[in-house]
Amino acid sequence: MSLRTNKHLPARLAAAGQIAKTIAAWVSARLWLTLPLLALPALWTFFASGLPASADGMLHLMRLVLLDRHVQQGVFFPRWVPQLFLGYGCPVFNFYAPSTYYLAEALHLLGLGYEQSLMAALGLLVLASGVVMFLLTRKVFGPQQR
After folding, report:
1. What is the pLDDT of residues 81-118, one digit of tens each?
2. DSSP 8-state class, residue 4
3. Separation of alpha carbons 82 and 15, rounded Å
4. Cα 140 from chain centroid?
5. Relative to the CA of 141, which of 30, 41, 117, 132 has its CA 20 to 30 Å away?
6. Residue 68, exposed/middle/buried by CB under 10 A (0-12, 13-18, 19+)?
7. How far apart are CA 28 and CA 23, in angstroms?
8. Which helix (H) or strand (E) segment is 109 a member of?
9. Percentage of residues in the chain having pLDDT higher than 70
10. Residue 98, C-beta contacts closer than 8 angstroms, at least 6 positions apart
11. Whole-angstrom Cα distance, residue 136 to residue 128?
12. 51 and 114 in contact (C-beta within 8 Å)?
């Protein structure tokens, strides 16, 4: 019994290697698409239990409601919120970054409830932080070299 050599085998292996390189390049260029899958464990708490049970969770919800009240009255950047601290007021949006509340307010104006808009804003920020970390990693370490 003799072993015959296939003279087309090296060409087939080269073609298979080229296909593998093309697939790897395609996946590498679209690696950021895996970020929502990687963020699922962090986002799962928003879907499973609602508003996170934290020491200041209700404060954030109250600030969102108060920001909505001011926006509905035409004050788009309220410096003083008179409803806080037993009616004495507080410049809460001067000291705490209001961008999270504005994102939640935009979602609320699109039709979500207060709690749902706050959770959706926090979920979007988790996804955005993953994208920013991906871009930072790519900037620091460069694109993957093969």
Report:
1. 898 888 899 998 888 888 999 999 999 999 999 999 99
2. P
3. 71
4. 21
5. 41
6. middle
7. 8
8. helix 99-109
9. 84
10. 67, 77
11. 12
12. no
93 Cβ neighbours under 8 A, 6+ residues apart:
63, 67, 77, 78, 79, 81, 101
Q: Which helix (H) or strand (E) holds 123?
A: helix 114-141
Q: Can you give the three-state secondary structure of 89-108, one letter per residue?
A: CECHHHHCCCHHHHHHHHHH
Q: What is the pLDDT of residues 51-77, one digit of tens each?
A: 777 888 888 899 999 999 999 999 999
User: Whats the size of the chain, residue-wise?
Assistant: 146
SS3 label, residue 81: strand
Give the Cβ contact number of residue 58 at 10 Å.
11
Rg (CA), the chain: 26
For 49, the token pair is 């239990």
